[in-house]
């Protein structure tokens, strides 16, 4: 019998509890998402040798005061909403990057954002996510917000074993691209006209959530992954561990970042969630993010989250890993 997600070990929900303790006074969804991006644990272990010292970390001692001011000042909050409203698409990565660009701009750290580098009109070499001025130096940061599920058909525990919910990529492949292509962009001759001075360092700031099968919520040792990374569970549709005494919300993509805080009247019972999931997967194979809530002052606060996937997701993920391993061998 699967463990109901309301009964999962408190360790698995530790980050959500800490987030609510620190940021529950924030109500605007964009401000809460920004709080998560700036305060969440890094996804990767910056000291792990395979990242070659190229993982950025960032902390703002005045973050709490700045976020409180942002939400309480109508004009400043409207600036944020207008900035996000100019997004050309609803892609989650673009949304997160735009939030960070607003923050860096407001904190007077931003030199440039989304700078395309072309060798010619029809030959794009790459793009700088962020050029920042930190401690008087020009630095290049690539930024990624990723959600990966650990496929556990064997004893391997590598970054390549974490796959995107739609099986479109892996953590290992993403990091290889960042390390060996994107962070080398400033060395290309075509990039030099965009740089007012030499790049002091090129690093990747990586945030996200990692998801484990129910019996793997006690975080396994995975080479290169931070032990403090935000995490949840994943399970197939037929084994969703719902608790009839709990309430839930299905998170839309732009609400995947910060732990959920919603009015209780917008939550669903376990029975309602079962019907919603059955209806969804009868027409669509895309995974669904499900958050378990606890009531507080008229709101539902997220205690844990998980991806519900098609029942054959694990088999397809294992096959994709085998194919990728064969290509790289």
TrEMBL record:
InterPro entries linked: DUF1853
Top-rank taxon, per record: Bacteria
Entry protein name: DUF1853 family protein
Source species taxonomy: Bacteria, Pseudomonadati, Pseudomonadota, Betaproteobacteria, Burkholderiales
Organism: Paraherbaspirillum soli
């Amino acid at each position: 019998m699967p463990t109901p997600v309301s009964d999962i070990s408190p360790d698995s929900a530790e980050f959500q509890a800490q987030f609510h303790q620190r940021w529950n006074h924030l109500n605007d969804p964009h401000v809460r998402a920004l709080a998560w991006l700036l305060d969440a644990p890094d996804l990767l272990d910056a000291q792990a040798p395979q990242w070659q010292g190229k993982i950025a970390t960032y902390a703002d001692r005045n973050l709490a005061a700045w976020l409180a001011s942002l939400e309480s000042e109508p004009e400043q909050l409207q600036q944020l909403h207008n900035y996000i409203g100019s997004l050309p698409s609803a892609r989650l990565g673009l949304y997160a990057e735009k939030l960070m660009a607003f923050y860096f701009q407001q904190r007077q750290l931003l030199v440039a954002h989304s700078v395309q580098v072309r060798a010619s009109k029809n030959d794009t070499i790459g793009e700088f996510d962020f050029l920042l001025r930190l401690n008087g130096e020009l630095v290049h940061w690539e930024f990624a917000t990723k959600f990966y599920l650990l496929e556990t058909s064997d004893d391997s525990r590598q970054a390549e074993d974490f796959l995107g919910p739609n099986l479109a990529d892996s953590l290992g492949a993403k990091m290889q691209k960042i390390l060996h292509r994107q962070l080398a962009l400033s060395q290309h001759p075509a990039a030099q006209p965009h740089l007012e001075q030499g790049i002091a360092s090129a690093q990747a700031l990586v945030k996200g959530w990692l998801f484990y099968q129910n019996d793997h919520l006690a975080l396994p040792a995975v080479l290169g992954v931070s032990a403090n990374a935000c995490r949840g569970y994943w399970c197939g549709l037929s084994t969703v561990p719902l608790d009839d005494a709990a309430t839930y919300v299905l998170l839309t993509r732009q609400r995947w970042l910060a732990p959920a805080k919603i009015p209780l009247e917008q939550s669903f019972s376990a029975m309602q969630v079962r019907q919603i999931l059955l209806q969804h997967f009868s027409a669509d194979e895309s995974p669904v993010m499900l958050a378990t809530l606890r009531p507080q002052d008229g709101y539902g606060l997220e205690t844990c989250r998980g991806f519900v996937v098609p029942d054959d997701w694990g088999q397809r993920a294992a096959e994709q890993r085998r194919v990728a391993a064969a290509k790289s061998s």
